[in-house]
Amino acid sequence: MNAPETLRLSKRMAELGLCSRREADAWIERGWVFVDGERITVLGTKVLAHQKISIDKRAALEQLSRITVLLNKPLGYVSGQAEDGYQPASVLVTENARWRADPSRTNFEPRHLRHLAPAGRLDIDSTGLLVLTQDGRIARQLIGAESSIEKEYLVRVTGEIAADGLQRLRFGLELDGHALEPADVTWQNRDQLRFILKEGKKRQIRRMCEMVGLRVVGLKRVRIGAVRLGDLPVGQWRYLGPEERF
């Protein structure tokens, strides 16, 4: 009989959606994690799938204090670290750039600017909804290996689409030697397409369009899961509300 499979505690906590693996390791070091009621302080501890994992209330409170913001990214900013002289979109998250119509009652605090990381990316020449978060659970939900959250884009194009181009955009294309997942692609008008994807390979939509004879001249993300860009002005941001879920 094979021995039961064990998993690293931090990995198991991430799988259960308790936190990110990095957060789990930090909590273990602080003594904030319990397995079957026993406090665990050793990194790398292995657990069985059936064991009960719980966290100290201090960990829960710390997690509740972490914020997520929604930014309408303008052209000319990169999503992550600064590169090639271009600034990261996170520099736009300032007290003065907060949307005045933000429905959230969250009071701005300087600590909200620390450790904000993009949960997904938008190309430098794309605009629209970008999520920046301090919460590892949200990052994993949006960009984890098992994520299936829809992302919706409005895409302006030029050129003459191939006869079977629309069908190929929906299913049948490959990038980097791998078949793409099915996509929901429809014409909105004569020069604009709507894409709904569940994956996000680098410059995916632009490369897909090139394969069927089209050139992208404008790309805006308008929705991630159940969260929409809405009326958020370009270059401004708002807090993700406590009732909002991706």
List keywords for this structure.
three-stranded antiparallel β-sheet; 29% strand; globular; Structural Genomics Hypothetical 15.5 Kd Protein In mrcA-pckA Intergenic Region, Chain A; Alpha-Beta Plaits; alpha+beta; 246 residues; 6 helices; 3 domains; 16 strands; nine-stranded mixed β-sheet
What secondary-structure arrangement, pairings included, does this model have?
Elements (H helix, E strand, L loop, with lengths): L5 E3 H7 L5 H10 L2 E3 L2 E3 L5 E3 L4 E3 L1 H8 L3 E6 L43 E2 L8 E7 L2 H8 L7 E9 L5 H6 L3 E2 L2 E2 L4 E6 L2 E6 L6 H8 L2 E11 L2 E2 L8 E3 L7
Parallel strand pairs: 8-14
Antiparallel strand pairs: 1-4, 2-3, 2-5, 6-8, 6-16, 7-8, 9-13, 9-14, 10-11, 12-13, 14-15
Helix pairs in contact: 1-2
- What's the main sheet like? 9 strands, mixed
In whole angstroms, the N-to-C terminal distance is 42 Å
User: What's the number of extended β-strand segments?
Assistant: 16
Helix/strand structural class: alpha+beta
- The helix content is 10-25%
Structure, described:
With 246 residues, the protein is α+β, with helices and mostly antiparallel strands. It folds into 3 domains: 6-64, Roll (Structural Genomics Hypothetical 15.5 Kd Protein In mrcA-pckA Intergenic Region, Chain A); 68-146 and 227-239, Alpha-Beta Plaits (2-Layer Sandwich); 151-224, Alpha-L RNA-binding motif (Alpha-Beta Plaits), CATH 3.30.70. The chain has 6 helices and 16 strands. It has helices at residues 9-15, 21-30, 57-64, 136-143, 165-170, 204-211, and strands spanning 6-8, 33-35, 38-40, 46-48, 53-55, 68-73, 117-118, 127-133, 151-159, 174-175, 178-179, 184-189, 192-197, 214-224, 227-228, 237-239. The strands form 4 sheets. Strands 6, 7, 8, 9, 12, 13, 14, 15 and 16 form a 9-stranded mixed β-sheet that branches. The chain is globular and about 65 Å long.
